[in-house]
């Protein structure tokens, strides 16, 4: 084996310029593959983190996932009823105290009950459509990320009691209102109530910043004429990945629709899977192109060293030894290129992590590119490079192993 390694090194070193070009090709492929994977994985992780942080892990609503079974279906086996629509039950979640007590016993996390009421916010002749959300400030602060996004005031200002409200800064701008001003909330029932603005938040999500207003739960119940009612329970879990199992148990026990964050964003998560497939397909394509360079070198070596191959086979080297020789040459080029590629990939990734920019329009603000530092990216790129190198070395090696030494020496090939 030591002799084969010496011969392989002699072959590679004898074509230094071509070998260097092949190594550079592999290094560039590995380096850019690592950087691309780090950037795309970082973007995906950042996006999923925003989903997990900005929305409940499980949201229970006062809706039914499907219409209740009708008495006729129990009496007549052939009965088929379609087109049923659930009745609008203004009581919200029935027996909310018992439901919350049951959740308190076993939920591995925190939860907050709220009342969502559609309405309109008016001020100084202007109005915007909004969802008036009745909350318990202490519980809401434990499950809502808005508590960290206040520009002025906070949820704590609601605990003082009275007709206070916190709204998004975009809504305030559209209304022309500011902290301390009094706005009028009009419910879908036609009831009105004046509220004093005691807080302005900015999440970076337009739908929330211009369409949500938070008041004490009792005020929302009075405004919507739904005393003691709640119609949402938002759950934040210690482990977000446990959300589907928790949602199934809650729905089975309470009978109300419980949606995990994975279900609510199923199409987005599927799109991310497709994007990952595309990303690694591109990485494989880059490595394949680099493999052609290795194939070209090994093919040239086998052609130029035909007489050497014949002599070695005459001296007792087997076909397996010939294959092993040229595969090792391909792997050596791929391995060297991978090492340089690691350095290049790290440098590019580090440079991308230093990029600063600001987006302060309607979307999420960001000042750095999201980068994922993962050893897995390096290992995948290296495995692809070595795989391509092994194949690129095997094809010429197979040809060289089947050469007839007598024909070569006689000049037949």
UniProtKB/TrEMBL annotation:
GO terms for biological process: lipoprotein localization to outer membrane. GO terms for cellular component: plasma membrane protein complex. It is found in: Cell membrane. Keywords: Cell membrane, Membrane, Transmembrane, Transmembrane helix. InterPro entries: ABC3_permease_C, Lipoprotein-release_system, MacB_PCD. The keyword Transmembrane helix applies. It comes from the Bacteria. Residues 19-252 form the MacB-like periplasmic core domain. It is a multi-pass membrane protein. The chain crosses the membrane at residues 20-40, 277-298, 331-355, 375-395. Residues 281-405 form the ABC3 transporter permease C-terminal domain. PANTHER family: LIPOPROTEIN-RELEASING SYSTEM TRANSMEMBRANE PROTEIN LOLE. Belongs to the ABC-4 integral membrane protein family. LolC/E subfamily. This is FtsX-like permease family protein. It comes from Sinorhizobium terangae.
């Amino acid at each position: 084996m030591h002799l084969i390694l010496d011969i392989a090194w002699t072959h590679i070193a004898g074509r230094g310029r071509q070998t260097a070009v092949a190594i550079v090709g592999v290094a560039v492929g590995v380096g850019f593959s690592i950087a691309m994977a780090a950037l795309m994985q970082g973007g995906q992780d950042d996006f999923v983190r925003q989903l997990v942080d900005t929305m409940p892990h499980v949201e229970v609503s006062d809706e039914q996932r499907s219409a209740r079974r009708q008495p006729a279906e129990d009496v007549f086996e052939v009965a088929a009823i379609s087109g049923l629509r659930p009745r609008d039950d203004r009581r919200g979640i029935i027996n909310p105290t018992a439901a919350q007590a049951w959740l308190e016993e076993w939920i591995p996390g925190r939860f907050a009950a709220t009342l969502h009421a559609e309405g309109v916010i008016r001020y100084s002749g202007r109005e915007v459509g909004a969802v008036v959300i009745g909350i318990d400030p202490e519980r809401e602060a434990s499950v809502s990320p808005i508590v960290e996004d206040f520009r002025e005031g906070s949820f704590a200002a609601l605990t003082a009691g009275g007709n206070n409200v916190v709204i998004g800064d975009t809504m305030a701008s559209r209304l022309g209102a500011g902290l301390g001003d009094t706005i009028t909330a009009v419910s879908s029932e036609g009831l009105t109530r004046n509220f004093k603005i005691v807080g302005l938040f900015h999440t970076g999500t337009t739908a929330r910043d211009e369409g949500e207003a938070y008041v004490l739960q009792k005020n929302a119940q009075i405004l919507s004429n739904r005393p003691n009612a709640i119609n949402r329970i938002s759950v934040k879990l210690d482990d977000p990945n446990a959300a589907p199992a928790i949602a199934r148990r809650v729905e089975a026990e309470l009978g109300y629709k419980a949606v995990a964050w994975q279900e609510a964003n199923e199409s987005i998560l599927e799109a991310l899977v497709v994007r990952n497939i595309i990303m690694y397909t591109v990485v494989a394509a880059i490595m394949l192109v680099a493999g052609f360079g290795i194939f070209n070198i090994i093919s040239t070596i086998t052609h130029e060293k035909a007489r050497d191959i014949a002599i070695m086979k005459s001296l007792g080297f087997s076909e397996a030894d010939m294959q092993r020789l040229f595969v090792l040459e391909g792997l050596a080029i791929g391995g060297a290129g991978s090492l340089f590629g690691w350095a290049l990939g790290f440098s590019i990734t580090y440079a991308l992590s230093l990029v600063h920019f600001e987006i302060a329009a309607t979307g999420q603000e960001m000042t750095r590119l999201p980068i994922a530092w993962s050893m897995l990216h390096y290992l995948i790129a290296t495995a692809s490079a070595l795989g391509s190198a092994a194949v690129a070395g095997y094809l010429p090696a197979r040809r060289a192993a089947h050469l007839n030494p007598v024909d070569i020496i006689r000049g037949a090939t």
